[in-house]
Amino acid sequence: MRKINVAVVGATGAVGTQMINMLTETSLPINQIKFLASKRSAGKTIAFKGQEFTIEELVPESFEGVDLALFSAGGGISEKFAPEAVKRGAIVVDNTSHFRMQEGVPLVVPEVNPEALKTHQGIIANPNCSTIQMMVALEPIRQAYGLKRIIVSTYQAVSGAGNLAMDELKQQTQAFLDGVPKDEIPANILPAGGDKKHYPLAFNALPQIDVFAEEGYTYEEWKMVNETKKIMEDSQIKVSATCVRIPVLTGHSESIYIETEKPATVSEVQEILTNAAGVTLEDDPSQQIYPQALNSVGSKSTFVGRIRKDLDEEKGIHMWVVSDNLLKGAAWNSVQIAEKMFEMDLLGK
Amino acid sequence: MRKINVAVVGATGAVGTQMINMLTETSLPINQIKFLASKRSAGKTIAFKGQEFTIEELVPESFEGVDLALFSAGGGISEKFAPEAVKRGAIVVDNTSHFRMQEGVPLVVPEVNPEALKTHQGIIANPNCSTIQMMVALEPIRQAYGLKRIIVSTYQAVSGAGNLAMDELKQQTQAFLDGVPKDEIPANILPAGGDKKHYPLAFNALPQIDVFAEEGYTYEEWKMVNETKKIMEDSQIKVSATCVRIPVLTGHSESIYIETEKPATVSEVQEILTNAAGVTLEDDPSQQIYPQALNSVGSKSTFVGRIRKDLDEEKGIHMWVVSDNLLKGAAWNSVQIAEKMFEMDLLGK
């Protein structure tokens, strides 16, 4: 029986914490596990399955004997150390955006394009959180009716920006409730840690996630565009996105409009999604049943509801898609990729 | 010089309070003003321009000698008393949805269709808050390039649902910050006062505003569809909406996609909106300048930014539109209608 040695890079962050939760309940036969971080965090302890582990300093040699390395410590760390892990025989599942669009790096949502895993050269990229849940919801519809076009507006939670961003939102919110004037609300992280200006998110909506790039679109918006085409292996799909941060701690919501190739009725789409892997249909307006960010927290599923025909376009459909951005959007999809690879005999010897 | 006698119906609500602010600074030559409410609120006092007024009980005779009656006390009150006011010679500007789609009732955004005021038969309807700001932003573009299609996803504040909804959001938010479990968070009003189930909005997004109606769309969504066609006097415009409540107190945001008849560049659209009545362009990604709900509070303007070409459709444009839903979305648009009517010699004799 194959058993695998696992290394987790970046175990103390918002995603890392959930990575440990997902590894606690994984079907992967873990032999050894180690937790790696920068010198700053090395020496701290971390609990896993009731045992205490000391975080080791991340160096190239850390990956000797490692079969699976899960990276979630920023693009710079992945850029430097993922190749070192691969050189030493590990499979890397990288949660940063660094390798996503590189040729030879599969970008995988297990429910959508597991076959791409076979083409890997050591590194597999985990897509962006907002892309993953959209892919889970749309792929079953694409399989049945084809997919020509996507227009998406997101309602994204702050946990995608890390623990410090979550703390900042809580502090800002309390300050507002305490009557602190708007100009004195602390804002040092959002909307994008690396950008010049910072704005309060509490009781606000910020139409900027990540920094601005070409054509007036943010990187987050470009991720949704480019990653969709790569995952669906269709450069012809029309995709445009507007990505917005709202005062939610965890759980991304998306208002998605699609145009299919063949027309589909609402009940046909509901039927397809009822039977789709990774999807939970929550769609009964008569009972006010629809997906909600708060309810998604802690679930691996992608929730879909508010499915309606466009009022004018025969092949147009609107829907509301929600998922826990730290789980299916990050930690769970990464661990699920590893499980899938194990199942496909691509991991562990 | 004409002077007018004004009656305000529903002066104590979230919109009513702003109505008084708008009347304080109006250019209308007010002769007398009176404040009307149900028996329950009658007898309370209200301050206007440094003077104390006693709220009178609303009865049909209240409108004797009144030239302008501003209604914002719910559809039922408008249904019953607006005709009584008209019967006594008053012009009614009604902020509820009751008369909006009735023939013979102009539905007016002064920047868009002031000419419709000439056709009035006593009652003028103020459009829905989320519709108004969209009309202000899109009409100048429609004038220049034509408008074939609108797809809008909203990010709406709670103040549109009244003072009690604002209080509820604040209480829920404090409870969350204090660690109260999700199931014990008080929720008695949102998403729709008159509906069966209520959900917490704090740190959540609720894809339901008003109750559900035909085709799986909510009334709020239908309002945006039907009112747009009536205000723009074009039943051929394709409109679909997804209306979502988010944890913001005041300031509606909208992610709007349009298709024009003739292609327009981003700088052409920016140029047009720079010179458009009621619009403030806030659109400079290089400086992280874009409209924000928090910044819109207290302004009569509609803020537009994030203007981008669709990545695939030559005639497709995306934008982000924000306005104070209590001002341009309600109180200011109502008072502005009255000012416009006065200017057009339709009010006061």
CATH top level assignment of the largest domain in chain A: Alpha Beta
Number of domains of chain A: 2
Uncertain segments of chain A of ≥5 residues (pLDDT<50)? none
For the largest beta-sheet of chain A, the strand count, sense and barrel status come to:
6 strands, parallel
**CA distance, first residue to last residue of chain A:** 9 Å
Helix share, percent of chain A: 25-40%
SSE blueprint and pairings:
2 copies of one chain form a homodimer.
Chain A: E1 4-9, H1 14-24, E2 30-37, E3 45-48, E4 51-54, E5 56-57, E6 68-71, H2 75-87, E7 91-94, E8 123-125, H3 129-145, E9 149-155, H4 163-177, H5 219-231, E10 238-242, E11 252-259, H6 266-274, E12 279-281, H7 293-296, E13 302-309, E14 316-323, H8 327-343
Parallel strand pairs in A: 1-2, 1-6, 2-5, 6-7, 7-8, 9-10, 12-13
Antiparallel strand pairs in A: 3-4, 9-11, 11-14, 13-14
Task: Write up what this structure looks like.
With 349 residues, chain A is α/β, with parallel strands linked by helices. Chain A folds into two domains: 4-126 and 330-343, NAD(P)-binding Rossmann-like Domain (Rossmann fold, 3-Layer(aba) Sandwich); 131-325, 2-Layer Sandwich (Dihydrodipicolinate Reductase, domain 2). Chain A has eight helices and 14 strands. In chain A, helix 3 (129-145) crosses helix 8 (327-343). The longest helix of chain A has 17 residues, at 129-145. The first copy, chain A, is globular, with a radius of gyration of 20 Å. The N and C termini of chain A lie close together (9 Å).
